[in-house]
User: What shape does this take?
Amino acid sequence: MIKLKSIISKIIASSIILIMSVAYANAQLTNIIPFGPGGESDVTARLQQKYYKEMFNEDMVIQYKPGGGGAVAWQTLNSEKSDGSLIMGANLPHIIMQPIANKETAGYTTSDLNVFTFFHYTPDAILVEASSPHKTFKDLVAFAKKNPGKLTLSGSGTYSANHLLTIQLEQKAGIKTTYVPFKGTGAANQALLGKQVEGSAGYSTVAIQLGDKARMLAIASDKRLPAFPDVPTLKELGYDIVSGAYRGYALPKSASTATKKKLSDRLMKINADKNFVKTMEDGGYVVINVGHDQVDKFMVEQKKINESIAKNLGLIK
Amino acid sequence: MTSLFADFLSSLSLLNVSLAFMGVLAGIIIGALPGLSATMAVAVLVPFTFSLNPSSALIVLGAVYTGAIFGGSWSAILINTPGTPSAVATTFDGYAMAKNGNGDLAMSVSCMSSFVGGIVGVTCLALFAPPLASISLAFGPTEYFWLAILGLTLISTLAEGDNIKSLIGACLGLLLSMIGISVVGGDMRLTGNISFLNSGIEIVSAMIGLFCIPVILDLTSLKGKHLTESESPKSLRLVEAFSIMFKNKLESLRGSLIGTFIGILPGAGGSIASIVSYGEAKRTSKKKDNFGKGEPEGLIASETANNATVGGGFIPTLCLGIPGTPPDAVILGALLIQGIKTGDTLFTQQSDIVYTFIFGLALATIIMLPLGLLMGRYAYKFIIKVPKEILIPSIIFLTIIGSYSIQNSILNVYFMFFFGLIGWVLNRAGFKASPIVLGLVLGGIAEQGFVQAYIIGNAQEAILANFFARPISIVIIFMITVGLLYPVFKDKFFKKKKLAHD
Assistant: This one.
């Protein structure tokens, strides 16, 4: 009995050590994801993880700090180490819209975050359920014009990229839609497939996840996606909208330019890897190379777009 | 059929069996520690699985998940703290049994119940996944709203003692559930400009505080042992546990089916499954009065249901690409990285992976039975034998680590202690923690369902029809009405009978 006991305790001890070592071995670059596990930020960081180890022989350790749609983590970034051993995920439109929409309680301003790169985005997309009578985007717009407000579109959250797409669409197409916010993409997809709504303002990744159960009518990317050569972009259809959720990384404000450059170069090197790009594209992600030298310009452009939407929503007077 | 057999064999490879074993083991330990949830357990292991082939990776993730959901029952039974949110209902009778000197029996019954629930869930996943997935799609915002209301009506059945106090507790829970940025509309509510509250009340740390801190305070202030020691500490009381399970075979099956069904509804999850199952068990049981005082039937209801959600939750995850439970979301992400596309085609074109995984999940559930019984015995003995002077600080240490690890934030720890104090004061005044937690869990679902159904109904210019004229809604409304009116009618009927006898 004593023998058995010691064996069991050894097994338990070794498995605890195993778990710990998986999580903390050789910790070099801590990557704080401001959301819970399982989302796009987590999935893409985990894809980078493998290449980071291979290319730079350093571990990227992923930690989660969810809460407040990211705000809980972003408030604390500037009290973290700035020597380049820690980066934090930074997402658009979140880091622009949250300080606008929740001025008093967001707990940070956009300029508090020292964003140094954006490495991909998931373009917004308009989807319908597979059996929907709306075959093309034109059909959908025609339906909305005929029945103002009856075009219900599910999406994830309020003031999210999905929500902002519907606002821009209303402006540019001169239609009235009803946006129905859900808690997360999964719930919005469930409403789409269950035909609770006419369509969904989702992401390109949704079309991959739902496969032939849903039809993507249009995508808000700059160019057509390799995974969906037949789906037109909104630009092609005559609506000048490029919109989506952009994902990148930020450092604390006190980080040096050299640190910014080093980390940005590393992540851009991963972005240049063919296999990495292929996996990302297969998943519906669009790789973009906004490095440390372009990021400021990029932020200014995005701010302009989001602020004009915020004005439209009455969030800025 | 031959190919199914081949899938079965491939799930039995030495690598897969040992992965399932390690997975269950790690899962049980993580699940048993309050605050370290099944989601966390799965997320930590995801990068580790990249080097494995897809089906082995899935097996180890499924095994950790299964183990963690079961492990949550340990801390529920031994220290009245649900290790994972899905073990809330396990505390009701599990802890009471442990207090009465039946802790070892409770550990055995909980393991066997988890086994039964897990197997039923996996069987439904293997046999009926596509049709069940389409049922989950019939649940729109309206149905979620009514389902949450149904859950709230169970409060009177759940809580022992004062009904009015339970209702007040539930209202407090509902109020707490409204704190933060609302999903629909994005309004800031009741946060008092504390940005930590933007994301709402963090349920797990609130739960650790409400359930565990009062126990620790009582333990410190009262004389006597933490739990009454079992009279026969040598044995596992396996025979007794088995005969209880056998006597309650129908109840076990009902709990498992409720768990599977609620598992297929994305966003509902194990906590609601075990609560609904417990409520149903209590409502229909002959030993209704024993519930909450250490009735094994209540423990069975909760534990069969929460482990059945594992198999149930994989149904929408694999068939629709919509994660059934939070751990499923992590597993779905891992699947996409492995290049597996979910949907109907998964069951036809990549059926070898799916069925190897399903058999692997069954295998993990089977491994869980002996492993859980054996480990459970040591866990029980440890808690019984260890002197209070060591036990109390250890539990406090665990609650702090647990609350901290949820968001890697010390604020969660303060928050947990804050709720602990509230829980202790309310406990003194006769308010129980469970109605508060129930209100907190169900409030968000009810509110979002209501507002979404209203928005959709408004767009269709048919608000009332959207609430009252949908078939599934009508069934749920009927269940709510029966549940609410039954006690009233029963009282009248019994009184008449009694009078006639007199």
